[in-house]
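3.2 Worked example (two chains)
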Amino acid sequence: MVLSIGDLSRRTGVKVPTIRYYESIGLLPAPARSEGGQRRYGAAHLARLGFVRHARDLGFEIEAIRSLIAMAADPGRACGEAHAITRAHLADVEDRIARLAALRDELRGMLACDNGTVAQCRIIEVLADHEQCLHERH
C-alpha cells in the first residue's frame, strides 16, 4: 500500500497540515519520498495516524500520546503507565465536566428573570457583580 498525503488525509480524516505537524513533532514517522519529493505513506503510517487521531479525539495531550505510542511499540511491557496516563486524563475530564455543570447552573440561574427591562435583568445584575454567582469558579 502506498498513499499520498492527500490519500492518507482522506482515509483518516486528518487534515494535511496536521499530518505534516505530526511528522514534524515525531508522532508520525517521516515517510519515504518519491523521486519527485512527494511523501509516500504505507500501512504503518495509516495505523499510527489512526491511533493518534483516536487518542486526540478522546482528548489526550500530545505528550501522553507520545508515551502511549512508545508503550504500544513494546507489547510485552506492563501497562501500568498507560493506566496512570488515562487516570490522569480522566481526572482532568471529570474536573472539566464539574466546571461545565457549574457553568450550566449559573447560566440557568441567570435566565430566571422575567424578560422585563434591563434595569431588572438578572443577567446584567450577575454579570456586573460576581458575588451574585452561584459558584465561585465556573
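3.2.1 Second chain
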Amino acid sequence: MPPRENGQEQPVIRDNRKIDPETGQVRDASAAEQAAEQPPAAAAANGELEAQLAERTADLQRLQAEYVNYRRRVERDRAAVREQAVAGALADLLPVLDDIGRARDHGELTGGFAKVAESLESALTKLGLSSFGQKGEPFDPTVHEALMHSYSSEVTEPTAIEVLQPGYRLGDRVLRPARVAVAEPGDATPASNDDDEN
C-alpha cells in the first residue's frame, strides 16, 4: 500500500461491481476474476488459515458437546442425590406413620393429634410418598412380603388376604414392601404325601 502523507498506509479499495459506473457497460466476469486473483503465496496462506479455522471450529463443537453432556450428567446426579436424601428421610418416618395408622384403627386418633397426623400425611404425600397394599390384590413378590401362608378354595391365584403392614413407595422406588398374609388356591388342609404310605 502506498503511504499517506502522515506516514500511515492507505486502505485498498476493490471495485467488485458488475457494471462499470463510468461507462455503464457490463464488466467482463473473467477480467474481474483475474483482478481478484491472489498471488499463490496468499492463496496458500488462506488455505492454511481455513484449515486452522476448521480445526478450531471442530474443537469448539467438541467442547460444547462435552459441556452439554457434563451439564446433563450433573443435573441427573443432582436429582438422584435429592431422591436418595428424600427417601432416607421418609424411610425414618415410616414407623411414625405405622403408629398413626394403629391409633386410627383403634379410634385413638382424635382432637389436635388427628389434625397433626393429617398435616404430616399430606406433607409426606406432597413429597411423593404413597402407600400400597390392599386386601384381595394378587401377591407380587416384588412389592409384597409374605409373613403368613395358607390355602383357600376362595382364591384362584396367590392373593393377599390380609395386609399386616402397608407398603410405601416414593415414585417407582419401593421404600418398604407391604407385609401381607398370602393364600394360595387349594384345600384348607395340605394334601397328604402318598410316598409315606409305601
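3.3 Remarks
Residues 64 and 70 are 10 Å apart (CA to CA).
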